[in-house]
């Protein structure tokens, strides 16, 4: 079963219930969430939530903020369901979260794509998982990918920012080398500024040394979804 980050989903549902009934949101499955949010001015909700979340996490912010909404949003959501299930099936170590009309994927040192301490070169396991990921991205070409690099709090700020950039670039460059168009990829470096776990513990630091991906619909997918609705 796909892992769910309750805090992330809670943010979306809390905002959505301000404009739609609780019952409507609670009864919505992943495919329908885009339609439910869109019916209640999803672009407004997505923009507000996206702008707030971007301050903490640009990948998740982009996923939430890129709302088409309405029935077209439901069409996009259905396609994202399939892609998320494919990622989870082929890369079981990844933390895959379906959010609205996009996907948030987290790889840390305990799963998926990871790096040795103070290193940014990709190891054999990371390359194996990125090969699988590249294959999925080729299967679903109408998506854009945000790649974020993060570190723990060990070391100074400047060093960690550079390290996170090198790690994000390593992932982006590898995906491009596997045939993913560079135009689909946007890279961010956050250093130690966006921890998700407690840096006071070894386990928390390991989880903070991560690469995070946001997968969103590109303009073609949005146009195709809107055209499908009109037919």
Automatic annotation (TrEMBL):
<feature type="domain" description="OmpA-like">
    <location>
        <begin position="102"/>
        <end position="219"/>
    </location>
</feature>
<keyword id="KW-0472">Membrane</keyword>
<dbReference type="Pfam" id="PF13488">
    <property type="entry name" value="Gly-zipper_Omp"/>
</dbReference>
<keyword id="KW-0812">Transmembrane</keyword>
<dbReference type="InterPro" id="IPR039567">
    <property type="entry name" value="Gly-zipper"/>
</dbReference>
<feature type="transmembrane region" description="Helical">
    <location>
        <begin position="60"/>
        <end position="77"/>
    </location>
</feature>
<feature type="signal peptide">
    <location>
        <begin position="1"/>
        <end position="23"/>
    </location>
</feature>
<keyword id="KW-0732">Signal</keyword>
<feature type="transmembrane region" description="Helical">
    <location>
        <begin position="34"/>
        <end position="53"/>
    </location>
</feature>
<keyword id="KW-1133">Transmembrane helix</keyword>
<dbReference type="InterPro" id="IPR006664">
    <property type="entry name" value="OMP_bac"/>
</dbReference>
<dbReference type="GO" id="GO:0009279">
    <property type="term" value="C:cell outer membrane"/>
</dbReference>
<dbReference type="InterPro" id="IPR050330">
    <property type="entry name" value="Bact_OuterMem_StrucFunc"/>
</dbReference>
<dbReference type="InterPro" id="IPR006665">
    <property type="entry name" value="OmpA-like"/>
</dbReference>
<keyword id="KW-0998">Cell outer membrane</keyword>
<dbReference type="Pfam" id="PF00691">
    <property type="entry name" value="OmpA"/>
</dbReference>
<protein>
    <submittedName>
        <fullName>Outer membrane protein OmpA</fullName>
    </submittedName>
</protein>
<dbReference type="InterPro" id="IPR036737">
    <property type="entry name" value="OmpA-like_sf"/>
</dbReference>
